[in-house]
Amino acid sequence: MAANDIARVYASSLVEIGQEKNILDQLAEEVQFLSELFISDSDFRLFLTSPGMAKEAKKDFIKKIFTGKLSEHIINFMDLLIENDRMSFLGKIYEALRSIADDVLKRKRVTVVTRFDLDEATYANIKTSLEEKYKKEIIITQEIDENILGGIIIKMDDIVIDGSLARDLKNIKKNLLTSKVRSDVAYED
């Protein structure tokens, strides 16, 4: 089974529990925290993925460190990942969980790229327009790119809406280079 398929199976189980207990967002936040910790802390990652370390020692470590800080569901989930040697899938599980949870909760994540921070009115206008179009709650992440001369680029899933000035200038250049000028027309100053 491919890594993404394995991740979706685990993520789907968490979504099911989250919906049943009405704690889906909480579970997603906790898995995100663990995923980021797993990526950023090499000691944590090596300990949990080391084949030489006993599974019971790993489970005890998780319980000792995270009991009272993370939900019982996530601690049990981590036990399951350790038992099945799937800790290395934690990042992919989080990505799948977020995707499935967004579908279930009718959310869409959008990245808006601009040269400067969006003002509140522009942010609200983009959010409202996209929510009306997609009939979903829109979660906007803004990126600043100083290479953009002006305008905006919106990225959603596999869709990119490029309304940047740089793109407009490239299109003008392309049109000028490919346009034909009649030979019988001459211009003089």
What this model shows, in words?
The chain is α+β, with helices and mostly antiparallel strands and 189 residues long. The protein has two domains: 3-103, N-terminal domain of the delta subunit of the F1F0-ATP synthase (Peroxidase, domain 1); 107-178, Glutaredoxin (3-Layer(aba) Sandwich), CATH 3.40.30. Helix content is 59%, strand content 15%. The protein has eight helices and four strands, in the order ααααααβαβββα. It has helices at residues 3-21, 24-40, 42-49, 55-66, 72-83, 90-104, 120-134, 165-178, and strands spanning 107-114, 137-144, 151-156, 159-164. It has a four-stranded mixed sheet. Strand 1, helix 7 and strand 2 (137-144) form a beta-alpha-beta unit.
Helix content: 55-70%
Please compute the radius of gyration using only Cα atoms: 24 Å
Distance between the termini: 72 Å
Class based on secondary structure composition and strand pairing? alpha+beta
Characteristics:
Peroxidase, domain 1, alpha+beta, Glutaredoxin, single chain, four-stranded mixed beta sheet, 189 residues, 8 helices
Q: What is the compact description of this entry?
A:
The protein has helices spanning about 5-20, 25-40, 40-50, 55-65, 70-85, 90-105, 120-135, 165-180, and strands spanning about 105-115, 135-145, 150-155, 160-165.
What are the SSEs and their pairings?
Elements: H1 3-21, H2 24-40, H3 42-49, H4 55-66, H5 72-83, H6 90-104, E1 107-114, H7 120-134, E2 137-144, E3 151-156, E4 159-164, H8 165-178
Parallel strand pairs: 1-2
Antiparallel strand pairs: 1-3, 3-4
Helix pairs in contact: 1-2, 1-6, 2-6, 4-5
